[in-house]
């Protein structure tokens, strides 16, 4: 079994911010003002842990797959040693930084992979997210002459394990509320340009996730908001989290719990947009804002990824180990 786990990617050192931002902008270098703004955001949060989290996800997913797949046809006759090489291999590729998706695809081809399943550490499909990951894989495969077949898990907004994992973390915040029945619960995901969201699929999937979590916990007041809109002149879907906090204060809410359902892992958009910017907005408005912790590489989220990968692998024709 071969798996390509993909994530957004993040710079590791200050000097990597400019080429990283240039890649996000499809090869167009950012202006000095935009570059300074992004560098300041990284400076404010310290450093994004996304690379470490994604690597941990890959290692733990591979271990989880190998714990459930048969290793040998006969029982062990002796100790297997400190680590058994199992039939599952998880490769890591990121969208905007090293190891790039193309680098991972090349490594898979060099290892003789013939079939693979891909999954992105993001549960909702849009033309600006999952579709772009798929395009990068397809382009890399075409450059190499299509050395292996590839199937992508495109979305999992209502996977029972995913809903349970998010619900458990929202539940951790409920006991901290002074009046849980009167609090507002906001579920956020990355905003995208309105022209890329005209089919409504992305918005519907994010709302589905929010609905399932709200239903599981019996939340009386909840809504969807958006964050991390790009710095472009075109309109992006909203309301922005800070605008929604303004409305929450006007509606008489005193406490708000925000859950970044579109971001399984902690990184810049979670730390800056929610813990810094939204928290400052809430303080200004006199709101008490609590943030639900992220899934990261926790066992319950790894189990979701494992289940999705196994299901996708089983659908491949004549699925092989290599």
TrEMBL record:
<dbReference type="GO" id="GO:0046872">
    <property type="term" value="F:metal ion binding"/>
</dbReference>
<comment type="similarity">
    <text>Belongs to the ferrochelatase family.</text>
</comment>
<dbReference type="Pfam" id="PF00762">
    <property type="entry name" value="Ferrochelatase"/>
</dbReference>
<keyword id="KW-0627">Porphyrin biosynthesis</keyword>
<feature type="binding site">
    <location>
        <position position="269"/>
    </location>
    <ligand>
        <name>Fe(2+)</name>
    </ligand>
</feature>
<dbReference type="GO" id="GO:0004325">
    <property type="term" value="F:ferrochelatase activity"/>
</dbReference>
<feature type="binding site">
    <location>
        <position position="190"/>
    </location>
    <ligand>
        <name>Fe(2+)</name>
    </ligand>
</feature>
<keyword id="KW-0408">Iron</keyword>
<keyword id="KW-0963">Cytoplasm</keyword>
<keyword id="KW-0350">Heme biosynthesis</keyword>
<dbReference type="InterPro" id="IPR033644">
    <property type="entry name" value="Ferrochelatase_C"/>
</dbReference>
<dbReference type="InterPro" id="IPR033659">
    <property type="entry name" value="Ferrochelatase_N"/>
</dbReference>
<comment type="pathway">
    <text>Porphyrin-containing compound metabolism; protoheme biosynthesis; protoheme from protoporphyrin-IX: step 1/1.</text>
</comment>
<dbReference type="GO" id="GO:0006783">
    <property type="term" value="P:heme biosynthetic process"/>
</dbReference>
<comment type="function">
    <text>Catalyzes the ferrous insertion into protoporphyrin IX.</text>
</comment>
<dbReference type="InterPro" id="IPR001015">
    <property type="entry name" value="Ferrochelatase"/>
</dbReference>
<keyword id="KW-0456">Lyase</keyword>
<protein>
    <recommendedName>
        <fullName>Ferrochelatase</fullName>
        <ecNumber>4.98.1.1</ecNumber>
    </recommendedName>
</protein>
<dbReference type="GO" id="GO:0005737">
    <property type="term" value="C:cytoplasm"/>
</dbReference>
<keyword id="KW-0479">Metal-binding</keyword>
